[in-house]
Amino acid sequence: MKNLLEIIMPASLAVVAGSIVVCLFTLGNHLTPEPVREEVSSCAGMGPLPQPVKLISALPPGAEPGDIAAGDALFKGNCAQCHAVNEVVVGPALAGITKRRPMPWITAWVKNSSKLVASGDEYAVKIFNQYQQQQMPSFHLSKKEIEQIIFYIEDNGYRPAIGTDDVAYTPPKP
Ligand code: HEC
């Protein structure tokens, strides 16, 4: 009996360890720097996952490859002197802005924030007062360019690490 266990135990441990290695390897292959629009729903050797794992490299909904890089350049050229994605600089941290405001509001704000404040828009007046009534400049950017900036912001905001709900992703400091 003991002899049999001595054979079965290491063998089954090896199978489990092997599955885990294969699984991690498969996940690792998907985590390329190129944005991929994909969900992993099963892992080789371990059967289907309880729910699909959303990959960190997935593009924000609606974004095309190339939008993030374009948005990055536009953000650095126009917004970065006052804004960062994840921390307050002169203006607010912009992470999560699409959850706070609808896209048409964001576009109107970037094109002419003073006009929105003057119109009495409740949110605009509130944030304007909250930031000591500092006027954000108006930008002659197209709707598409503003969308690209927002895609870049969404792509770089804090997000949970794979498979966890409560661990914040901290981007590496440049
Ligand atoms: C000269 C500084 C400055 C620049 C440049 C600037 N902003 Fe702002 N932004 C602000 C300030 C200050 C606020 C806070 C509201 C206010 O005081 O008008 C703000 C607020 C915002 C808000 C609302 C944020 C929230 O949490 O509700 C958005 C969205 C925004 N800016 C986007 C942009 C984008 C996109 C660019 C680049 C195209 C940009 N800003 C460039 C200073 C700036």
TrEMBL record:
Pfam families: Cytochrom_C (PF00034). It comes from the Bacteria. The chain crosses the membrane at residues 7-27. InterPro entries: Cyt_c-like_dom, Cyt_c-like_dom_sf. Keywords: Heme, Iron, Membrane, Metal-binding, Transmembrane, Transmembrane helix. This is Cytochrome c. Residues 66-157 form the Cytochrome c domain.
